[in-house]
Protein backbone atom coordinates (compact mmCIF):
# COMPACT_ATOMS: atom_id res chain seq x y z
CA UNK A 1 0.00 0.00 0.00
CA UNK A 2 2.80 2.46 0.87
CA UNK A 3 4.68 1.48 -2.29
CA UNK A 4 1.58 2.11 -4.37
CA UNK A 5 1.11 5.54 -2.81
CA UNK A 6 4.79 6.37 -3.45
CA UNK A 7 4.56 5.26 -7.09
CA UNK A 8 1.43 7.36 -7.60
CA UNK A 9 2.72 10.50 -5.88
CA UNK A 10 6.15 10.31 -7.50
CA UNK A 11 4.60 10.06 -10.97
CA UNK A 12 6.18 6.70 -11.77
CA UNK A 13 2.78 5.15 -12.56
CA UNK A 14 2.13 8.01 -14.98
CA UNK A 15 5.49 7.45 -16.68
CA UNK A 16 4.68 3.78 -17.19
CA UNK A 17 1.02 4.19 -18.18
CA UNK A 18 1.77 6.86 -20.76
CA UNK A 19 4.82 5.03 -22.12
CA UNK A 20 7.09 7.96 -21.31
CA UNK A 21 9.75 5.45 -20.24
CA UNK A 22 10.50 2.69 -22.71
CA UNK A 23 12.86 0.72 -20.46
CA UNK A 24 12.21 0.84 -16.71
CA UNK A 25 15.51 -0.85 -15.79
CA UNK A 26 17.51 1.73 -17.77
CA UNK A 27 15.43 4.54 -16.26
CA UNK A 28 15.99 3.35 -12.68
CA UNK A 29 19.70 2.84 -13.39
CA UNK A 30 19.90 6.40 -14.67
CA UNK A 31 18.17 7.74 -11.57
CA UNK A 32 20.56 5.76 -9.37
CA UNK A 33 23.61 7.04 -11.25
CA UNK A 34 22.32 10.60 -10.99
CA UNK A 35 21.75 10.28 -7.27
CA UNK A 36 25.25 8.85 -6.76
CA UNK A 37 26.80 11.64 -8.84
CA UNK A 38 24.90 14.28 -6.87
CA UNK A 39 25.95 12.71 -3.56
CA UNK A 40 29.59 12.66 -4.65
CA UNK A 41 29.37 16.31 -5.73
CA UNK A 42 27.95 17.25 -2.34
CA UNK A 43 30.64 15.34 -0.44
CA UNK A 44 33.38 16.94 -2.54
CA UNK A 45 31.86 20.39 -2.04
CA UNK A 46 31.65 19.87 1.73
CA UNK A 47 35.28 18.74 1.84
CA UNK A 48 36.43 21.79 -0.15
CA UNK A 49 34.35 24.09 2.05
CA UNK A 50 36.05 22.68 5.14
CA UNK A 51 39.53 23.04 3.60
CA UNK A 52 38.92 26.68 2.65
CA UNK A 53 37.46 27.37 6.09
CA UNK A 54 40.56 25.95 7.80
CA UNK A 55 42.83 28.21 5.70
CA UNK A 56 40.73 31.28 6.47
CA UNK A 57 40.62 30.49 10.19
CA UNK A 58 44.41 30.07 10.15
CA UNK A 59 44.58 33.63 8.80
CA UNK A 60 42.52 34.92 11.73
CA UNK A 61 38.98 34.83 10.38
CA UNK A 62 36.40 33.82 12.97
CA UNK A 63 33.32 31.82 12.05
CA UNK A 64 30.22 33.87 12.78
CA UNK A 65 32.12 37.17 13.04
CA UNK A 66 33.89 37.79 9.76
CA UNK A 67 33.63 34.32 8.21
CA UNK A 68 30.26 32.93 7.19
CA UNK A 69 29.20 29.60 5.68
CA UNK A 70 26.08 29.09 3.57
CA UNK A 71 24.62 32.39 4.62
CA UNK A 72 21.15 33.33 3.39
CA UNK A 73 20.08 36.58 1.75
CA UNK A 74 18.20 37.91 4.77
CA UNK A 75 21.24 37.24 6.98
CA UNK A 76 23.53 39.11 4.58
CA UNK A 77 21.14 42.06 4.50
CA UNK A 78 20.95 42.14 8.29
CA UNK A 79 24.66 41.68 9.04
CA UNK A 80 25.96 44.08 6.40
CA UNK A 81 23.01 46.52 6.32
CA UNK A 82 22.44 46.13 2.59
CA UNK A 83 19.36 45.69 0.44
CA UNK A 84 19.81 42.90 -2.12
CA UNK A 85 16.26 42.92 -3.46
CA UNK A 86 17.33 44.50 -6.77
CA UNK A 87 19.56 41.51 -7.60
CA UNK A 88 17.57 38.66 -6.06
CA UNK A 89 14.13 37.16 -6.55
UniProtKB/TrEMBL annotation:
InterPro entries: Restrct_endonuc_II_DpnII-like. The keyword Hydrolase applies. Residues 1-86 form the Restriction endonuclease type II DpnII-like domain. One of its GO terms (biological process) is DNA restriction-modification system. It holds the Pfam family DpnII. GO terms for molecular function: DNA binding; type II site-specific deoxyribonuclease activity. Keywords: Endonuclease, Hydrolase, Nuclease. This is Restriction endonuclease.
Amino acid sequence: EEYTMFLEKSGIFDLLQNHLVSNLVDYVTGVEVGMDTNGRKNRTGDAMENIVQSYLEAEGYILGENLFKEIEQNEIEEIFSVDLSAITN
